[in-house]
Design brief:
The chain is α+β, with helices and mostly antiparallel strands. It contains 15 helices and 18 strands. It is globular and about 65 Å long. Bound molecules: flavin-adenine dinucleotide (FAD).
């Protein structure tokens, strides 16, 4: 390995690359780096980190740029743009897929489906990078059965904060593996990952089931989280006439397209409004890409480019039943009716195995995501919404809830210590060992 004094500083970057690296999907925080490395190899990343570490210069990775509050920025340091590390290779024999950290999940899906396979869990939107999804955690509509995206990783290739290129897995350097998955980029940057796959169905049937009150919705969500009748279950609260909210479950089951489908068996005992149910058959590829259309629409209306003060919380299910309807009735959340999406998702504790991916105690959990769009050029409104996120976060913590890191929320080191709770000292130990200069991914503000 070269010594850090042999390394030459990475060149600066064109102004537009610096501006891009100082922005993210949140469009709220903007910290300008000194330079941007458009990485083409793990060695280039190793050299950059070896140069920056001893000099105390921050280094952060950028994948799909979907961070919401500057978590991937590097104030006065270097952003490693992972986009060119996008190679994806499916190994059907092993049911695995080897991906560069900059590959987007949509590239992963394309390569896996070509072999009749798919990752068991995928987030709804496929625009995040492999490295971004694995460093934060990432849940999807199949999470009630298969946990988080991080629960399906066989091996990682990383560059640590000491500039070492290492491979880790549950069998090899497990301490590093556990410190990297959902580790918020604190100990290493992910260069590549081997993901486990499962057979993919060709066709699925999608049910959209509307409930006009929260109680029957949560009763159904609880039931569907616990039995295996649907492969995918997610939900939304949707504004209804008269200032109230409807609750929709979107549930999906594979189907052959041959035999008459057993709709009654799947939805006959649920408590939704039978007159408004929607049933539709889709190819699995169409289903997995279901957000592409929304993205096109939001880009066309300009909402995609506006500030996104989003917040995602994991709640104990019994707390969600009262907290969700109560907060949706509050004045502070009324903006969500016009410009936003309220997502709900059942999760089950026993499927979540990634040590650093924190979750509430108990088996039945509910993910709540408030995905709001703020008007452009209204910094006061954005500040107010971020403050509302902070207030809601504190309420959620008081009832046993946990943050899904990555939201538009100011966090202090003491908050992070409480967030990681029993695994904090493990993470702190790994940080001292693998990133002793504390230069990696400072945007989360984990350390004083
Ligand atoms: C429209 C939309 C829909 C979403 N839907 C879901 C969903 O359904 N479920 C869900 O769980 N989440 C969802 N998310 C959240 C998203 O998956 C996470 O924010 C994810 O971390 C984004 O990854 P990225 O590569 O796009 O982001 P980036 O902004 O590039 O990175 C996010 C964070 O990961 C770090 N990072 C990126 N690459 C690496 C790497 N190679 N090594 C180490 N650290 C790295 C960055 O430094 C930053 O801190 C959604 C976000 C958006 C904008």
């Amino acid at each position: 390995m070269k010594s850090s004094s042999d390394l030459i500083p990475p060149p600066g970057a064109p102004a537009e690359d610096l501006a891009r690296a100082a922005d993210d999907f949140g469009h709220i925080v903007g910290s300008r780096p000194l330079g941007v490395l458009a990485a083409r190899s793990a060695d280039e990343i190793r050299d950059l980190v070896s140069f920056a570490g001893p000099r105390g210069l921050p280094v952060s990775a950028r994948g799909g740029g979907q961070a919401l509050y500057g978590q991937g920025q590097a104030d006065g340091g270097y952003v490693v743009d992972m986009a060119a590390l996008d190679e994806v290779r499916c190994v059907p024999r092993d049911r695995t897929l080897v991906a560069g950290a900059g590959a987007l999940l949509r590239d992963v899906v394309r390569a896996a489906l070509a072999e009749g396979l798919a990752p068991p869990v995928l987030p709804d939107h496929l625009g995040s990078s492999v490295g971004g999804a694995l460093s934060t955690g990432s849940f999807g509509a199949a999470s009630h059965r298969y946990g988080a995206v991080t629960d399906w990783v066989r091996e990682l290739e990383v560059v640590t904060g000491t500039g070492e290129r290492l491979t880790c897995s549950p069998e090899r350097r497990q301490d590093l593996f556990d410190a990297v998955l959902a580790g918020l980029g604190q100990c290493a940057l992910i260069v590549g990952a081997t993901l486990r796959l499962v057979p993919a169905p060709d066709l699925v049937r999608r049910y959209r089931l509307y409930h006009h009150a929260p109680e029957p919705y949560f009763t159904d969500q609880r039931r569907l989280a616990q039995d295996a009748r649907f492969s995918h279950v997610t939900g939304q609260a949707r504004p209804a006439l008269g200032g109230v909210w409807d609750y929709m479950i979107e549930a999906v089951a594979p189907h052959s397209g041959q035999l008459p489908h057993e709709d009654e068996l799947l939805i006959g005992d649920l408590g939704h409004d039978r007159d408004t149910e929607e049933i539709e058959d889709l190819s699995y590829a169409e289903y997995l890409h279901r957000m592409d259309r929304d993205e096109r629409l939001l880009r066309a209306t300009g909402e995609w480019q506006r500030p996104h003060p989003w917040l995602t919380l994991l709640l104990p299910e019994e707390a969600a039943v009262s907290l969700v309807p109560a907060l949706l009735a509050e004045e502070a959340q009324q903006g969500l009716r016009a410009c936003g999406t309220v997502q709900l998702r059942p999760l089950t504790g026993h499927t979540l195995r990634t040590p650093l991916l924190r979750r509430p105690a108990g088996e039945l959990l509910c993910l709540l995501s408030l995905m709001r769009t703020a008007p452009p050029d209204h910094p006061d409104t954005v500040r107010r919404l971020v403050a509302a996120n902070r207030a809601l976060y504190e309420r959620a913590v008081a009832v046993g809830g946990v943050l899904l890191p990555g939201g538009a929320l100011p966090m202090l080191p003491a908050d992070w210590r409480a967030h990681f709770g029993p695994v904090w000292s493990e993470l702190a130990r790994a940080k001292r060992r693998f990133d002793p200069y504390a230069v990696l991914t400072r945007g989360y503000r984990l350390w004083p």
